[in-house]
Amino acid sequence: MKLAGKYAVVTGAARGIGAAIALRFIEDGIEGVALLDVDEQSVKETAAKIDTSGKRAFGFKCNVASKEEVASVFESILKQFGRIDILVNNAGVTRDAMFHKMTDEQWNTVIDVNVNGVYNCCKAVVPSMREQKYGKIVNLASVSAFGNIGQTNYGASKAAVIGFTKCLAKELARNNCTVNAIAPSYINTEMLQAVPENVMAKFIAAIPANRLGEPSEIASVVSFLSSDDSSFVTGECIVVSGGSHM
Fold it and tell me: Which CATH superfamily is domain 7-240 in?
């Protein structure tokens, strides 16, 4: 029950890693967790599934790329919870293409969600975290930040998240707030399940652990960074890759 009495927000929480994080928070005894996603029906269904009591998990429709929408949703969450102790910026999109074929729309969509979304959500919680002298921010980056063919937009966005994390961590340390990032490699989510078998085999062959990671394994690291067990850890980017990016 290491998160007892705490309140959290998880973005991109309708499925996959985000849903696994929200579930782990419930298991850790969180007092309240707000699940945010652009898919309103799915996020509300996920909230109901992980919390059958209906008293601790709540789904909200939110496009993190919209500053106005984020401000409105976070205002509602603050009114309901009274405070936000933990923010997990998990929402993200891919629009993969070789750079010479990449469109402006593919570039801008990824930057708007993956970078501006993190900015918007942090902007919504940092003032209250500074005031309450407590906060845990965890940003989901990716090993694509270190280079991956066909992902100049995604890699650039996740490299930006890592830099953002390290800078904000230095600013907030004096306010008893930690800011950390996690860079997963290939995780067994719906997005990856669409990859052809022959391509998937190559992915797995490059992982020393010889398997994909599971969303619950990312959630475990988020759980640590969101708890007081990590009180002296800030500005870090923890790579979770089964050994593929040591």
Answer: NAD(P)-binding Rossmann-like Domain (3.40.50.720)
Active-site residues, by number, are 154
162-215 pLDDT tens trace: 999 999 999 999 999 999 999 999 999 987 777 788 888 988 999 999 999 999
Q: Would you kindly state where each structural domain of the chain is located, as residue ranges?
A: 7-240
pTM > 0.85: yes or no: yes
CA atoms within 13 A on the CB side of 108: 3
